[in-house]
Amino acid sequence: MSWPSGRLLPSDAELYHEGGWLNDVCILYYFDVLLYDEYSRHKNWEHLLLVDPSTAFAIRFEDDEEDLALLIDGLRVQDRRCLIVPLNDNSDPALPCGGAHWSLLVLSRTALSRPWSGVYYDSAAGRKMPSWVSGVGKKLTNSDVRIAVGECSKQSNCSDCGVYVLEFAKRILQASLLGDGTPANLLGVLPRDVSILRETILESIHKNGGRASR
């Protein structure tokens, strides 16, 4: 199934079923669902950006200034007040589909003229924030960003990290665009919320003509 930002293969769609570990295409597909199906007409949507996970991965490892500028220029960071960045723990830049865990970096500022701050969310209990996360924040914002570790719900298995990232991103968007200024409640994400999100995405694929049912 093709959509504006890519192509979802049947093998990708299968990963949304219980027990599936989401890859970068799975993350990107739901980000586009949020954009095109839910929030694209919101007046403040342009202030936020859901970063393509493959772009975030490339930025992490890109050290050439010109190539880094090419990656970042298209994101229009100068026009954004919130960047939602999915992070993969893959340590091999030659293996873009590797890694075993997803986490989330949220960079925000109260106004375009204000400095950036960051919060890092990880649904795996006991994991520390990797040292390279601050480097991603610095490259994206061209500034030294102070990044705090945010409180969030924890997964109970080894396969749901990507779905937690999507649920966190969804709640952050809802709070930013539709809320009253109260921060998103990421401690309230329950296992059933994760299961429901998997089902919701599968329904979206079926609605859009993809093959993801069993």
Automatic annotation (TrEMBL):
Tell me which domain of life the UniProt entry assigns to the organism this sequence originates from: Eukaryota
Concerning PROSITE patterns, the annotation shows:
ULP_PROTEASE
MF GO annotations: cysteine-type peptidase activity; deNEDDylase activity
Q: Which SUPFAM superfamilies match?
A: Cysteine proteinases
Q: Keywords on this record? A: Hydrolase, Protease, Thiol protease
- GO BP: any one term: proteolysis
Boundaries of each Ubiquitin-like protease family profile domain copy?
A: 1-172
UniProt lists the family membership as follows: Belongs to the peptidase C48 family.
Q: Please state what the protein is called.
A: Ubiquitin-like protease family profile domain-containing protein
Q: Which organism is it from?
A: Perkinsus olseni
